[in-house]
Amino acid sequence: TQELHIVGGGMAGSEAAWQAANAGIRVVLHEMRPKVETFAHQTGNFAEMVCSNSFRSDDDERNAVGQLHWEMGAANGLIMEMARKHRLPAGGALAVDREAFSHSVTEALRGHENISFVEEEVTELPSSGHWIFATGPLTSETLGQAIREASGEERLAFFDAIAPIVYAETIDMSVAWRQSRYDKGETEEERTAYINCPMTKDEYEAFIDALLAADKTEFHEGETAGYFDGCLPIEVMAERGRETLRHGPMKPVGLTNAHDPQTKAYAVVQLRRDNALGTLYNIVGFQTKMRYGAQAAVFRMIPGLKQAKFARLGGIHRNTFINSPTLLDAQMRLKSHPNLRFAGQITGVEGYVESAAMGLLAGRMAAAELQGRELPPPGPDTAMGALVTHITGGAEAKTFQPMNVNFGLFPPIDAKGGRRGRKDRYKAYTDRAKDSFNQWLEGQS
Ligand code: FAD
Predict the structure, then answer these.
(1) Dist. CA 348–CA 389, nearest whole Å
(2) Distance (Å, rounded) from C-alpha 310 to C-alpha 296?
């Protein structure tokens, strides 16, 4: 029988190993810790939580990450099983005792008869055998360079530069309008690809004041060593001069306010479509290190975004990730080297849960392939399917940045009017997702 090699025993690699081993595949798990360390991990355990001890909301009716918990539980996920076993009281969130959690993931893997272990840093991409690379946001430097060479310079990033993402339906289109700068584009769709929010001088000045005053986070020690390529946060641009943003991402040129063509805006904030569904828009050039608490308040000062709801807030972190929309096929394989799969945060998802979910899928897909079958991904109306569909095709490749699971990734419900309350609508999404996920599981049994 053939072996499956998995590189990285983090959230994704641990889950992938568990799924494949349970399917009867012999797994070799390669992990460099504790021999080689990262700046964030503290132990040699598998599935170490490097920062917060929370898997976020556990509400599987009205929250997309809660729905993802449910799906991982339904698929016998090891990460969810151990998280629930070591749960700590935290309201609606699934918080865990991190030591006990990663210890029991480690024990479960070490006790599995189909899994063996190699303590080493993998430094190149193998040309033969079946492999899953799940080396995470802190992929070792040598391996990162090897992936960069195989994928092309521009297709592996060492930092994310996440601009906030807004649910399109929460943008006030009586204030904002659709237009590309200088009406550029071949088609009507391209000429109206951006949503523009105009600012008066007073609004701009107040916005700059708020940016300068907002609470910011710092890089971790060791995080920027030799990597940071100078992608500036907006608040740093504002610190360089009050006019800098007005001559940068907020420049008002080439745009005419459809609601008030006579008045020239003093500054314009642009939002760009972020997914094929057109449900999500990112604020162009607004990567930031403002704290989450400060971000929503500052961004809601932008005319047209007063009621905005955010699918994801902005950030900048050390984060190794590939341009999955161009590099991976729907089976999470590297198109140029189909013996290699990628899973976890390196595929451009963000967070413990999302990473483990992509490990679950990659592990099952690889196991099926080794057994001579092809396992299709779960439907795009499931949380897991929505996420993998986004990274392997639905996301805009040119501006691809890591993504959390959220309802904006799901095919919309209620397209033809009928305004249900938001809460009812979320329940409709998760009901539909559960049915669809169960069908996907049944197809495998
Ligand atoms: P990891 O869990 O990082 O696992 C990757 C594994 O691969 C590691 O064990 C590493 O040692 C190993 N490895 C790397 N290179 C090699 C190699 N060449 N050979 C062999 N092994 C290798 N997410 C949250 O949800 N909440 C948070 O609060 C949070 N805080 C974070 C703080 C920091 C500083 C960082 C860097 C990330 C944070 N994240 C957080 C993101 C979180 O780390 C990931 O979502 C999750 O751990 C990713 O899972 P993964 O399996 O893809 O990677």
Answers:
(1) 12
(2) 8
Q: Which one of 6, 32, 106 would you pick to mutate in the ligand 1 pocket, going by the greatest count of ligand atoms within 8 A of its CB?
A: 32
Q: Is the CB of 102 under 6 A from ligand 1?
A: no
What letter represents residue 307's amino acid? Answer: Q
Over residues 151-198, the pLDDT tens digits come to 987 899 999 989 999 999 999 999 999 999 999 989 998 899 899 999
CB 15 within 8 A of CB 40: no
* Sheet containing 130-133, strands listed edge to edge, beginning at the edge strand earlier in sequence: 115-119, 26-31, 3-7, 130-133, 337-342, 333-334
Distance of alpha carbon 381 from the chain centroid: 17
Q: ipTM more than 0.85?
A: yes
The strand pairing partners of 167, in sequence order, are: 280
Q: Name the phi and psi angles at 175, rounded to 5.
A: -110, -45
CA distance 256 to 252: 9
- CA distances from residue 444 to 15, 41, 123, 371 in whole angstroms, order as listed: 18, 36, 35, 12
* Residue 415 CB less than 6 A away from ligand 1: no
Could you report the per-residue pLDDT of 362-410, keeping only the tens digit for each?
Answer: 999 999 999 999 999 999 999 999 999 999 998 999 889 999 999 999 9
| Residue whose entry in the numeric block shows the structure tokens 């090891």 | 78
pTM over 0.90: yes
Is residue 220 lining ligand 1, measured as CB closer than 6 Å?
yes
Long-range contacts of 291-300 (CB under 8 A, 24+ apart): 291/214, 291/215, 291/216, 291/217, 293/215, 294/214, 294/215, 294/216, 295/164, 295/214, 297/210, 298/207, 298/210, 298/211, 298/214, 299/164
Ligand 1 atom 25, closest CA = 351
Residue 121 Cβ < 6 Å to ligand 1? yes
